[in-house]
Amino acid sequence: MFGRVKPLDAILATAEKKSLHRSLGAFQLTMLGVGAVIGTGIFVLTAEAAQKAGPGMMISFIIAGFVCAVAALCYAEMAAMVPVSGSAYTYSYAVMGELVAWMVGWALILEYAIAAGAVSVGWSGYMIGFVQNSLHITVPLELVRGPFDGGLINLPAMGIAVVITGLLILGTKESATVNAVLVAIKIVALSLFIALTIPMIKAGNFQPFAPLGFTGISGAAASIFFAYVGFDAVSTAAEETKNPQRNMPIGLIGSLAICTVFYMLVAAGVIGTVGAQPVFGPGHVALSPGSPALSDACKAIGENAVVCSKEALAWTLRSVGHPMVGWLVGLAAILALPSVILMMMFGQTRIFFVMSRDGLLPEFFSKIHPRFHTPHVITLLTGVFVALFAAFFPVGLLADVSNSGTLFAFAAVSIAVLVLRRTDPTRKRPFRTPAVMIVAPISIVGCIYLFGSLSAATIQLFIGWAVLGLIVYYAYSRSRSHVGRGLTEVHEGDADLPPSSVPPID
């Protein structure tokens, strides 16, 4: 099982050819993390968390942030040692062998492709709300929600996925300046939301605090984890960090702490102004988010609850008498979220590209377009699947399935750190995970805990995906693997391909 290890020295030979200037301090790292993390999850998943945990979702943000923090410290050690493309897939290949690497790469497909679908659905919710409230055009529900969510097909979500796919094939990339502007738009929008809602909080809206008990809080934490993904952008900057042993933990923990406080203030603003109690069905049973039953219950109450909204923050502001700021928050989401979809799909194509080049996937996946110089085959295939996910599934289910892949990958990286400390203790580590014998096990247990808190349907989907992955590996990939055939070539291009985890996923 742990055979066929890709030689770490061969992987590192590429990275050593490209020396990066160490210029980032603790402040720059912290800001990088804040920019990468704040985004999709808080705009889109607040209603999902409220349906699962009620006001207790504030605790859910703390739990998810803590698990991210310990996972990030493990991730940083591997990212600093192996600063090449492929993310957790490459780390696993170098430490635990091909089968584990294949399963991690297979799980990362869930992280990126399905997450891109989730963001597309989230964008659709804000876009439709914007159109209906600004232009007073009523859009049929059947055309803007999937069959699990009380409609037929989500055409806007499908459309944005198709547009982004086309841009990726043409080779469009975000510039650092554009990205910085979009990050600023997101942060200004959320700051406005906090400034307007916090003074209007009513303490009574926080009762009962945990209507579904700690199980509900855990379930919401497992979903809210999606709101933090992107923090590993800080980890991958280890090679460019001054005094990484001091500054990496400050950047990682600092950015996650700031984001957690931000998220809790936004959650408090929602809960304290419009309430965030779950909608119950017959027999006082809490209905599942994104289910037809919840959709029907929301129709019965005139969609007059934050858990029913597909644009929770804009809906909250309109409900408390700030329609213009609600309009601006909706516009901020509409402008910022497509760039997140683009970077997720970009990361997905790079994972596929590296796996194809290692022989684990068909070679045509890594074909480069002669004119646009992009991996057009795999980009098109990824785009088709993202569009289908977005068209037919609700945002909560997609986010949870994405989280299952992410949690698996992060647990694998945490195990890899422990294994490599034992098998190769003398190797140069620009950053060492502090108290690794405590932090890494906590990270592994935390990932397992959040994974176990996902819905039964999500866990079953992940297991089915993993079984399918094993079938593909033994039926196709194992016999065609370059490492298995004794080919350990080093690719000069590795160091120039952006690591798949760098994009601001959330």
TrEMBL record:
This is APA family basic amino acid/polyamine antiporter. The chain crosses the membrane at residues 26-47, 59-82, 88-105, 112-131, 151-170, 177-198, 210-231, 252-274, 325-347, 377-399, 405-421, 433-451, 457-476. The lineage of its organism: Bacteria, Pseudomonadati, Pseudomonadota, Alphaproteobacteria, Sphingomonadales. It is a multi-pass membrane protein. Its main location: membrane. Keywords: Membrane, Transmembrane, Transmembrane helix, Transport. It comes from Novosphingobium capsulatum. PANTHER family: CATIONIC AMINO ACID TRANSPORTER 4, INNER MEMBRANE TRANSPORTER YGJI-RELATED. It is found in: Membrane. It holds the Pfam family AA_permease_2.
